[in-house]
UniProtKB/TrEMBL annotation:
Its EC number is 2.4.1.213. GO terms for cellular component: cytosol. It comes from the Bacteria. Keywords: Glycosyltransferase, Transferase. GO terms for molecular function: alpha,alpha-trehalose-phosphate synthase (UDP-forming) activity; glucosylglycerol-phosphate synthase activity; trehalose-phosphatase activity. It catalyses: ADP-alpha-D-glucose + sn-glycerol 3-phosphate = 2-O-(alpha-D-glucopyranosyl)-sn-glycerol 3-phosphate + ADP + H(+). GO terms for biological process: trehalose biosynthetic process. This is Glucosylglycerol-phosphate synthase. Belongs to the glycosyltransferase 20 family. It is an enzyme of class 2 (transferase).
């Protein structure tokens, strides 16, 4: 939830979340110190090892995550995961009830807590509740496969506002509602629509999340980052740098991206020894066997490709499996001539926006997957769209960009940065909250392209 920290810092509030550790961990001192510095309070919810297994790794990350990202064959529809999910949602609702007043606005984030408003209502509490889904919402032919589809869609309808990353996600949600909740009536057009149910009406809207543009741009211009970026370029002998940055997740399309890099060197030998691909992967959900297998697959591919093409003084792929401090990450963004952001499916993808913000020299090229939510915004303003499954097409696009003239690169990046600068994280929060509180459906700011 890196996107939300600057917002809370700016506005204050109370963040209720899983402590990230099993029950019993002593976090009290840590939290007090954190709140003093951060300007907002944190309240931990503790989960037992068993709850973490069933609710987090199980229901959230072995059912909802793969299904909503269109990887049905990776789903593990274990019935016991469902009970764990409900129990933990109830636990969160109880903590929320204890730590909030009637007048507070409750803003729930992501697929782990889709039942929260339902639980609060069952407890007899009438709180104004909004929900934002950070991942895609699937179309009916996928969503209807979910054994608990009716309960989940009806639980989502207990929120007063349901927000999605793209219009496509919002449309999918509306279509699933129409398929499963016959009494629901839709009205309105544009970014926000109203869904009327028997006793109440809710809103559903599209709010593409973003980043704190100014903070990324300022850090990218700091002497420390400028120096670190130069050191990276020097270490890679001033060859063109293509960068990939992702959480290690099968939705991010890292193996396909590596295949595209292999294609690049096979089909376009003129780029051998001229470009270096840097892939930075942050460890994620390592307890799930699929994630462990993915890491092995990636490491094997990197080994194969490097084995095939490495020459004295040139290693084609530099692979790092670690969490980078923010400054170092921004130095890589700044140093990179191209960013290859090619998820197979992604709610938004903040790496694409962070790269643009950090590209203060306005000379970089952004390749973006058609299947990232960010494509809906950024294809209109200079990103080069690629189909991540089309490894030859991706290689061809990279080859073309290598020889693209400086003016075109510059004009694309200027437009991209302009768009991310305007539609930043603060714009996102304002548009969500305005949709939550405005009287009329069209009383809120539209995105500016
Ligand atoms: P994620 O799937 O985590 O988020 P993304 O939007 O790309 O995906 O955000 C990843 C974040 O992790 C970025 O802020 C990036 O800087 C950071 N990061 C990645 N690799 C890193 C590394 N090696 N070291 C340090 N930091 C690293 C979910 C959805 C997305 C949606 C976001 C926000 O899956 O689609 O964009 O939420 O809504």
């Amino acid at each position: 939830m890196t996107a939300l920290a600057p917002v809370l810092m700016n506005r204050g509030g109370l963040w209720i979340g899983w402590a990230g550790a099993a029950a019993g961990a002593d976090l009290k001192g840590l939290l007090t110190a954190f709140s003093k510095d951060a300007g907002y309070d944190l309240h931990p919810v503790f989960l037992s090892e068993e709850e973490i297994k069933g609710y987090y790794f199980g229901f959230s990350n072995e059912i909802i995550w793969p299904l909503f990202h269109d990887f049905q064959s990776r789903c593990n529809f274990m019935p016991q995961y469902w009970n764990a999910y409900l129990n933990v949602n109830l636990k969160f609702a109880e903590v929320t009830a204890r730590h909030s007043r009637d007048s507070d606005y409750i803003w729930v984030h992501d697929y782990h807590l889709m039942h929260l408003a339902f639980m609060l209502r069952n407890m007899g509490l009438e709180r104004n509740c909004g929900f934002f889904l950070h991942i895609p919402f699937p179309p009916p032919d996928i969503f209807l496969k979910l054994p608990w589809r009716d309960k989940i869609i009806r639980a989502l309808l207990e929120f007063d506002l349901v927000g999605f990353q793209t219009m496509r996600d919002r449309r999918n949600f509306v279509e699933c509602t129409e398929a499963l909740v016959p009494e629901a009536k839709l009205s309105g057009r544009g970014n926000i629509v109203a869904i009327s149910l028997k006793r109440r009406s809710i809103r559903a809207g599209c709010f593409p999340i973003s980043i704190d543009f100014n903070s990324f741009a300022a850090l990218a211009s700091s002497p420390e980052v400028v120096k670190a970026a130069e050191e990276i370029q020097e270490a890679l002998r001033y060859r063109k740098i293509i960068l990939g940055v992702d959480r290690m997740d099968y939705s991010k399309g890292i193996p396909q991206r590596l295949q595209a890099i292999r294609q690049l060197f096979v089909k376009y030998p003129d780029l051998q020894e001229k470009v270096t691909f840097v892939q930075i992967a942050v460890p994620s959900r390592e307890e799930i066997p699929e994630y462990f297998a993915l890491k092995n697959e990636i490491e094997q591919l990197v080994g194969e490709i490097n084995g095939q093409f490495t020459r004295p003084g040139w290693i084609p792929i530099h692979y790092q499996y670690r969490n980078l401090p923010r400054r170092e990450l921004i130095a890589y963004y700044r140093a990179a001539d191209m960013a290859l952001v090619t998820p197979l499916r992604d709610g938004m993808n903040l790496v694409a926006k962070e790269y643009c913000a950090a590209n203060v020299t306005e000379s970089g090229v952004l390749f973006l997957s058609e299947f990232a939510g960010a494509a809906a915004q950024l294809q209109k303003v200079g990103a080069i769209l690629v189909n991540p499954y089309d490894t030859e097409g991706t290689a061809k696009a990279i080859h073309r960009a290598f020889y693209m003239d400086t003016r075109e690169r510059h004009s694309r990046m200027v437009k991209l940065r302009d768009s991310v600068r305007r539609n930043n994280i603060y714009w996102w929060v304002d548009s969500f909250l305005q949709a939550a509180f405005s009287r009329h459906l069209d009383d809120f700011p539209q995105e500016t392209v």
